[in-house]
Each structure stands twice: as C-alpha cells, then as structure tokens.
Amino acid sequence: xxxxxxxxxxxxxxxxxxxxxxxxxxxxxxxxxxxxxxxxxxxxxxxxxxxxxxxxxxxxxxxxxxxxxxxxxxxxxxxxxxxxxxxxxxxxxxxxxxxxxxxxxxxxxxxxxxxxxxxxxxxxxxxxxxxxxxxxxxxxxxxxxxxxxxxxxxxxxxxxxxxxxxxxxxxxxxxxxxxxxxxxxxxxxxxxxxxxxxxxxxxxxxxxxxxxxxxxxxxxxxxxxxxxxxxxxxxxxxxxxxxxxxxxxxxxxxxxxxxxxxxxxxxxxxxxxxxxxxxxxxxxxxxxxxxxxxxxxxxxxxxxxxxxxxxxxxxxxxxxxxxxxxxxxxxxx
Length: 333
Known about the structure:
The chain has one domain (2-332): Porin (Beta Barrel). It is 8% helix and 56% strand. The protein is built from three helices and 16 strands. The protein has helices spanning 2-16, 38-43, 214-217, and strands at residues 72-79, 84-97, 112-131, 137-155, 160-174, 177-193, 196-205, 208-212, 223-227, 231-240, 245-254, 259-270, 273-283, 292-303, 306-315, 324-332. It has a 14-stranded antiparallel β-barrel. A hairpin with a 2-residue loop joins strand 5 and strand 6. It is globular. The protein starts with a helix and ends with a strand. Mean pLDDT is 88; it is low at 1-23.
C-alpha cells in the first residue's frame, strides 16, 4: 500500500515540475472528455474523485466502483448552443466475494470487494456548412467524438482501494477522415478516518489521436499523432453526517500548464431531495480564465425494485451563446 501511494505522489510532483509549452487546456486535444460526466458531477464542479456515495462512475476515479451500492445505470443529455451535443451513459457494479449468510439472515464481511464501471461519452457538432476549395457548398457536415471506457477496481482494506480504467477514443471528423487512440487512468482512494476520503488520480496516460489524411489528399496526405494532456489530481471530501452535507475539493495539474481548483457540495434537503453546487476550473496559473459556477438538484423515488433518480445541473459556459443544462436519469437496482 505504501509503495502504491508513493508512486502517485512521485508522479504528481513530477508533473507539477514539468516544463510546458502552453497555459491553456481547453484548446488541447480531447477537450470534450474533460468537461465532466453527468448532471451530478457537473453540478458539483466535477470535484468527485474522492466521493464514495451515491451513483458512482470510474470517469472521476477508477477506484470508486468498489463503493457502489447495488447496480447503478446512468444516462445524461446536455443542452448546448451552436448545434453541439454531449451525452453520457454508464453502468457501475460492486462485487462482494466470500459473503456468507447465517440462519438469521446476517451477512458476514466479504472476503474481498471488486468493482466494475463502464461508460460512453459522446460529443459532436452538426449543421456545419461544408465548402470545397472553390467556395461552393458541399452540404452540411457533422462530427462525432467519443470516449468508451471500462474500469476495474479492488478494495484491499477498509482504508485503501485502487483501480485502473482503459479508454478508447474515436473521432469521426469528416468523410473518410477519422482518428482513434487508446489510453488509461489509474486511481486510488484512501479513507484515513470515518467520513473523510482522499483521492489520487492520473488520467489520460498514453492517450493520443492518430490521424491519416491520405484517403482525402492522396500523396499530399500525412500521418499525424497528437497527444492528450496528462492530468494529475488530488481530491478530498468529507461528509458532515448530522448536517447532511457532503463537501469536496480537488486540485488538478496538467502538463499543459494548468493548475485547477474544483469545489463541490451536496446537501440533503429533504428525504430523497438533494441540492448541489460547485465551482469548476479556478485556474491558479491564469487568473484571466473565467471560473465556471454550477448548481443542480436530484430527486429519487422507489419504483418496485428500482430506485429511479431524476437529476438536473446548470453550468455557466463562458464564450457561448447560452449556458449548459444537463438532465439525467439514474437507475439503481
């Protein structure tokens, strides 16, 4: 356990000390995959890498799936300006091995706990006015950028969990021109005391797009490889049980020269009604970059053997004609 924690700390310090060429991450490759996942995550400022309750997904930390209660399925849709789309789909499940039930129905402590989380992020732009080299219209063009991920995790003790997530990227730009790539994330979750969690995550290791434009330009085409920025995150969260309040914070560094702080909170207002708020992308390296405030809520109810949750999030989106509105539905069974 100490060796694994040391690995994360060394990697994080190395990334913070790395020399970079640019200070902005929003314009770098794969930006769609760094906007967040679903209504809950976005409403809480995407500071969910250390949160272990509610509907969980490996997107924020591959080690989280071992804390999922029941089977969780999530689907989300984002209302965006400029004919853009952003959609989410995920499934998370925890596996308890070696559990025994006595004659009184009392379950023993599992011998081991594992978790599985898989999902899709789909992004794109439609109704793009296509033109040839003479300026003549060629009709509308649409693009599609996708991330498919699957993560596995194991809980080694009551205090430490570790996970790894594999990701496949596919970008369909125009007819006959596309790119793909494979990367992975690693994450750990530490629980030093009750209600306090600490997360360590490194994302987009080896993630890159490989482009081939020869199907369109022939001999004038080329093969190009473009790397994703590498991200390192340290997160912390605490649950105030009596106050029914969950707070989370996160520091993210990238080799694109950014150092972001994220903040999020979730308050249980009444039974199954939760209120959420957050601040995303408070850039310590560039005070001119606007912060992205967010807010939202969720309400869940039991339907036969299912628990169905309805979620909504509002996120301020700078440089856009309108802000983000994310709606989602969760199923727990």
